[in-house]
Amino acid sequence: MKKTALALLFLCLSNITISPATAETENWCGKYFEEGERGYIQLARNDFGIGSSDCSHIGYNKRVSENGTANIELEFTRNRSTIKKWRKFNNHLIEVRGKFANGSITGTRFIRDMGI
């Protein structure tokens, strides 16, 4: 009985530690910029890890003034031909959708351009 209980406890704890590692797809609002042939999005720090609830210049500027920014790499920009297509969004407030994993946003999909 104790072995069964310990095995069950181990499985429950294993699921708890594995579950947070799976990132969910979120919307991210921030300023796009390039550095060293890579594309980044400058997020408000309070959006970091949870995604952006709304994407507007007023909301973004308010969140940035309260908590600062964090620069996150957009994973798709490791391909040089793709980064050339995104160059037109340099310094624009954009909204993208993707998963935050390993320090970058992966599976990035463009949602909209809010302009400068």
Write the layout of secondary structure elements.
Elements: H1 2-18, E1 25-35, E2 38-44, H2 57-67, E3 69-74, H3 80-86, E4 93-101, E5 104-113
Parallel strand pairs: 3-5
Antiparallel strand pairs: 1-2, 1-4, 2-3, 4-5
What are its keywords?
globular, 3 helices, 116 residues, 37% strand, 5-stranded mixed beta barrel, alpha+beta
- N→C terminal distance: 65 Å
Low-confidence stretches: 13-21
How big a fraction of the residues is strand?
35-45%
- Give the fraction of residues assigned to helices: 25-40%
Largest sheet: 5 strands, mixed, barrel
Structural class: alpha+beta
The count of strands amounts to: 5
How large is the count of helical segments? 3
**Morphology call:** globular
User: Radius of gyration, rounded?
Assistant: 18 Å
Order of helices and strands: HEEHEHEE
Average pLDDT reading? 80
Strand order of the largest sheet: 1-2-3-5-4
Fold and architecture overview:
With 116 residues, the protein is α+β, with helices and mostly antiparallel strands. Helices cover 30% and strands 37% of the residues. It contains 3 helices and 5 strands, in the order αββαβαββ. Strands 1-2-3-5-4 form a 5-stranded mixed β-barrel. A hairpin with a 2-residue loop joins β1 (25-35) and β2 (38-44). It is globular, with a radius of gyration of 18 Å. The protein starts with a helix and ends with a strand. 23% of the residues are buried.
